[in-house]
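G.,

No rush on this.
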Amino acid sequence: MKSPSEPLASRRQWLVNAAGIALGALAAGKPGSAEAQAGGRLARIRERGHLLVGLYQEMPPFHVGGSGIDVELGKALARELGVGFSPLPFQSGESMDDDLRNMVWKGHYLGWGPADVLLHVPVERPLMQANPQVQIVAPYYRERVLLAFDADRLPHVDNLADLQGHRVAVAGLSLAGWLLAGAEGGALKERLVTTFADGVGAAQALREGRVDAVAGLASELESVLAGDSRYVLQALPSPRLPRDGWAVGCAVRKDADDLALALQQALQALQASGRLQTLFAQSRVSWHL
């Protein structure tokens, strides 16, 4: 069952704010046995027979229309826990706090949620401190911001000043767009093309020759441009970015210690076997942690 439509935005806005500084309706279900009640959340999930996984909607390459990296990861985690996979896709709320409330510890006031686990949550201490009802565990990917450019039009980009006079594509509301709009005293702003919903669309504009460069999340740009020798992909040369990017992981209720431990162990098993890396490679995204 899909969650109702909500105003878009927010986890992206959370990233913008964080880096600017540093930078169905299918609730879990009631247990049916004394064993499940005594065993905690993981025992209830196993008795129910499926893991309810919260997935951000329209977030390529992690989830679009029922497919993507996070969908495959949710399936893999469910298999490791010995249960089936049940997706709960939703559109982000006004803030990450809203998402954690609606999808992890309380549920939406319209009746859908919460999920057992929400994927793709930034593993950041300020977010954890602001939301004591949840725990964020099992990091599975480290996101970064990249710049990609056509080597025939731009021989090199050593600093952001090298982009002056060139058309650069960015998603309208994105960390990359925020950084470039304010760079070089605003000198790049007039040449930014910001009509894209995400970095995947911006990267496609580069492939079509409509712009000379694109900036966005590594996962977005790599899913479109990786392996194409016409393009250079490198870290966006901005001192305002977190040096090592940021990790994303899994959010569960604060009292779900057994589930948190099981998810951590499942991720470790997937990483050790190489299956986690393969999930990313299938979408042409290089895996980092």
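When you get to it, here's the other one too:
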Amino acid sequence: MRKLHFHLCGNFKESYEEELAIFETDFGRFWLMAGVFILLVIVPLTSSSYTLYLLNTIGIYAIAAIGLNLLIGYTGQISMGHAAFFGVGAYTAAVLTTRLGLPLLVALPLSGVFTAIVGMIFGIPSLRLKHLYLTIATLAGQFIIEYILVQWDGVTGGAEGIAVSNASIFGIKLDSDLSFYFLIFISLIVMAWVMVNLIRTRFGRAFVAIRDNDRAAEGMGIPIFKYKLLAFGISSFYAGFAGALFAFYMMTITPEPFNMWLSIEFIAMIIIGGLGSVSGAIFGTVFIVMLGEVLSMATEFLMNYGPVADIGVNVAPLREFVFGLSIVLFIIFEPKGLAEVWRITRSSFRLWPFSY
């Protein structure tokens, strides 16, 4: 009788899958499949080595940015040490392969797990600290890990770093940009899919509740410290996994890339892309990597050509200024980031020719 009453009153859904189907359209499925086809078939066959290098860099950084977005965008825990965790994953992978002889498919997840443990240790202050104080604590973690990477010569190789042996999967050597492209972007697709589904679970809802109001979340019975540590662990796992890919791809790692500036770039990626959005982290990564590339090319041009060579010397330090200005402009004019721009564009095409 109750079920009959529901059917008489309206068309109610009785399962989670049916509820999700309300928001899914053939338009979305088509573009998703088309995007995957272009990414894994068209792009590798038509791109130069330089283009593949840029795409591989974007793919690696995007995995790390997705992890940071879980911590900041979904849980509200600010971290300035993401580059350090990225470096921990890179060095862990290098040690596991060069000194313990573990294969790539084993070293990748183990690097993520070890980095997650390190991240949870540095996430312990989140029990008592919030906002600016937590930011300073994670910044201290960044400096501590940087110091360890430089000074612990017996493990990290110090300033000289570690040369990573050629990676291979099932006997197939990964010795080109193209071969790494497939590994990196298959990893990105899987990691993004896992994150999207994680946010839909009770863990994801708990993260969002802590971000919105941690006291109210605790009043509802959510163990906030446990979930804060879990967020630090998952975020660090993503950073460590991406760092391991970075080590295999670059083949030689030194402490220099894993500095505070890289942490700032990761934060810029998720702010410009859109906090609390998996796709936003990817959009932001594309924007920041391409912006850095354009600025480098512009600086090189000004320094090497024509009577404006002196201008190039003055323009070179403005890279930080342009990054900061980009963040400020997005916060003012589009605080929800590129993900919101994509949502509006997608909605417009879905309703075309009847736009809002």
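The longest helix spans residues 224-250. The radius of gyration is 22 Å.

Enjoy the weekend,
O.
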